[in-house]
Amino acid sequence: MADSAQNSHKITKQIFGETYTIVGEASSGYISEVADFVETRLLELGKVLPNASKTKIAVLCALNLADELFQMRDVTAKVNENPELEERTKKIISLLEEGIIGDHF
User: Fold this and answer.
1) How many domains does the chain contain in total?
2) 21: Cβ–Cβ under 8 A, 6 or more apart, which residues?
């Protein structure tokens, strides 16, 4: 258990008007980036719903982020289920990187 405490990072961040102390095993920079991302999303929702409570905005933000996570998980699962799709995607990316695809269309 002592190893886990040695690998943890602790930062203090202001998120949506509240101060939070966040502890995690990821780097401080990563934790800060995640916190900033969440705050940005909360502020965006706050602009759209100016009369909503902070709790309502937080729940809606959590639902939006969970929806994005589920969609990404579904896409990843489909790619993993279909190796041919993954191979074709890699070829298209390769063509785009080489600039060849523009010559063909």
Assistant:
1) 1
2) 10, 11, 12
- Distance CA(1)–CA(10), nearest Å, equals 17
Residues 7, 25: Cα–Cα separation, whole Å = 6
Structural domain including 56 reads: 2-104
Tokens 């063509």 -> residue: 95
End-to-end CA distance of the chain, in Å?
59
Taking Cα atoms as reference points, which of 23, 21, 15, 13 lies closest to residue 54? 15
Q: What pLDDT, in 10s, does the model give residues 27-66?
A: 999 999 999 999 999 999 999 999 999 999 999 999 999 9
